[in-house]
Specification:
7-stranded mixed beta sheet; extended
């Protein structure tokens, strides 16, 4: 049975490769010449990308629909690589215009996630949305590889959550994570092999224009046509000014005599000595009015979502609260979780034992809770204060600036995991008071001959 499954997978991969190559020939308008770096990208199309797409469709729901957009973006990238292999590099401003369709597709992928924040597959969508800007490596030089690595790391936070949720229940999600991360890993190796210092362009072809970008076989939008050519420049007048210039120098050489033809103005006609003349009805000035800056049109304020504090299934949703100091949740079941989103200058108290707590995109939030069975996660936030009254095994701080954690005596064995964060402090109870300890932010890594060793860097000052 295992041999049969392996054979079916090989057949599916072979068919997909034939379809990809066929669509590639159509996209290249009958050209049989394919650059080596385009062929290398095709290997990923029929490999890890195809595996990711197949598993996404098997999982279905929002993940399957999201994968269609990702597939279109990857094909648009492939079409751009074909253009680069046949054209010379355009100026930077024109390159930005050529990449605009791909940028719009990436934005569409991210907006898909924002519109489905209540989705059960939100972690899947977030993993894609946080890393998909990596497809924009085409515009990065001289180090596109590290940029893709950074985008890959951005997905890891959410892929780890997918693994934690499904590793014991549905192996398809585990394979989905593996295929998606493998694509980014292979893309880094691909860039290192073919585009180390930036996208490789043809040295002999015509300069790339909007019309030279080949549309992808399916999905994607052709870039807009170039604008009209600039109007023809009017030739400068060829009138000979030699005689008029000579006359001017002749007048200047007269010295004091040049003022002999000026008319004398008596004091009775001078307005600065006769105030009555300043009030006389003089003809209105008909010249151009002085420039006045137009009033700036007000920028429409972002739509404020209504505040929410309600239980949906097993999830408490606490969202969009501003200056709310009395928010409270009474947990009735151990399986309940809390998701706190976009709360500013507010305080939330959670009473009872809860499964997990997530704080996302909050500013100046105070969070007090009793017992947590799983994990407390703080992400994309600023100036957050957390107080533990009971026990919590793990606190995760990610992409957050300013986080104070007050531990209780029962939670001193808590593990605090941090990444891409700053100004973190842990406060330990000592004799009815708290002693503050900063969480290290700077590290030193050295090669000891066998492996890398990383230690905390102590800064004195």
């Amino acid at each position: 049975m295992a041999n049969m499954d392996a054979l079916v997978q090989r057949l599916e991969k072979a068919v997909l490769r034939l379809e990809t190559l066929e669509s590639s020939r159509n996209a290249e308008c009958g050209s049989d010449v394919v650059a080596p770096f385009v062929e290398a990208f095709d290997e990923m199309l029929v490999g890890t990308i195809a595996q990711y797409y197949k598993l996404s469709k098997e999982i279905g729901g929002d993940v399957g629909e999201h994968a269609d957009l990702v597939n279109q973006a990857v094909k648009m990238e492939r079409a751009f690589l074909v253009t680069a292999s046949q054209s010379q590099q355009p100026p930077v401003n024109e390159l930005t215009q050529l990449l605009q369709p791909l940028s719009n597709k990436i934005l569409q992928i991210q907006e898909f996630r924002e519109k489905r924040r209540t989705s059960k597959q939100f972690n899947h969508l977030s993993a894609i949305s946080e890393s998909i800007p990596g497809l924009g490596w085409l515009a990065f030089a001289p180090k596109p590889g590290p940029y893709v690595k950074e985008m890959t790391d951005a997905a890891m936070f959410y892929t780890n959550r997918v693994l934690k949720e499904y590793k014991d229940t549905d192996k398809r999600h585990v394979e989905w994570v593996k295929a998606y991360i493998n694509f980014w890993t292979e893309l880094q190796a691909y860039i290192k092999a073919h585009h180390t210092t930036g996208l490789s362009w043809s040295k002999t072809g015509p300069k790339a224009t909007a019309s030279s970008v080949t549309a992808p076989p399916s999905g994607g939008t052709a870039p807009p046509p170039p604008g009209p050519p600039p109007p023809p420049q009017v030739a400068a007048s060829s009138v000979d000014t030699t005689s008029s210039r000579a006359a001017l120098f002749s007048e200047l050489n007269k010295g004091a005599e040049i003022t002999s033809k000026l008319k004398h103005v008596p004091d009775s006609s001078k307005t600065h000595k006769n105030p009555a003349l300043r009030n006389a009805n003089t003809p209105a000035h008909t010249g151009p009015k002085p420039f006045k800056a137009a009033a700036a049109s007000p920028i429409p304020a972002a739509k404020k979502e209504p505040p929410m504090l309600q239980l949906e299934g097993k999830k408490w949703r606490v969202e969009n609260h501003d200056n709310a100091s009395n928010l409270a949740i009474q947990v009735a079941e151990l399986k309940q979780v809390a998701y706190v989103y976009k709360c500013t200058q507010s305080t939330l108290a959670i009473k009872g034992k809860i499964n997990s707590i997530t704080v996302d995109n909050c500013k100046k939030l105070g969070l007090v809770f009793e017992d947590v069975v799983g994990i407390v996660e703080v992400i994309n936030s600023r100036d957050v204060k957390i107080q533990v009254l009971g026990k919590v095994p793990t606190i995760s701080i990610n992409k957050t600036d300013g986080c104070h954690v007050y531990l209780s005596k029962d939670s001193l064995n808590c593990e605090i995991v941090s990444a891409k964060s700053s100004e973190m402090n842990v406060l330990i109870p000592v004799n009815d008071d708290f002693v503050e300890y900063p969480v290290p932010e700077q590290f030193k890594t050295v090669w000891n001959g066998k492996k890398l060793e990383t230690t905390v860097t102590e800064i004195s000052g």
